[in-house]
Write a structure and sequence with these properties.
Elements: H1 2-59, H2 62-87, H3 92-107
């Protein structure tokens, strides 16, 4: 009877080991399937991205990009020339004319307003109290 119990125990241990191995294999298979699904999503994303890039390349050729860059550089150069012209627009003759005009203006008799002859009041009237405004309440943006 003891031999039969030992054989039964040994059989159950082997059965338990087989079951654990099968569970381990199933878990590994589930992980592999999940990883493969993620890889498929990544590949699909890359495929869509590649298609978008190809469409963008069809819309914009290298020649067109170079043309746009050239036009932009020309516009920047043109603006720089305008800035230089405006910055250096006063010649020496212009500066002399401006100084002469300034001298003429400063030498003219200017009519100044009459200064009051009354003495200033001794007491300074109290200023009306300034009303305190309530501070605006800050509200968080949503």
């Amino acid at each position: 009877k003891a031999l039969l119990l030992l054989k039964k125990k040994r059989y159950q241990e082997q059965l338990l080991d087989k079951t654990e191995n099968q569970i381990s294999n199933l878990e590994r298979m589930v992980q592999d399937i999940e990883f493969t699904q993620i890889e498929m999503k990544v590949i699909e994303g890359l495929k869509i991205g590649n298609e978008c890039l190809n469409k963008m390349h069809q819309v914009m050729s290298i020649e067109e990009v170079e043309r746009i860059i050239g036009e932009t550089q020309d516009a920047v150069e043109y603006q720089r020339q305008i800035d230089e012209i405006l910055a250096g627009s006063l010649t020496e003759e212009d500066e002399d004319a401006i100084l002469e005009e300034l001298n003429a203006i400063t030498q003219e008799q200017m009519e100044l307003p009459e200064v009051p002859s009354e003495p200033l009041p001794e007491e300074i009237p109290e200023a009306s109290p300034v009303k305190n405004r309530p501070k605006p309440e800050l509200v968080a943006a949503s």
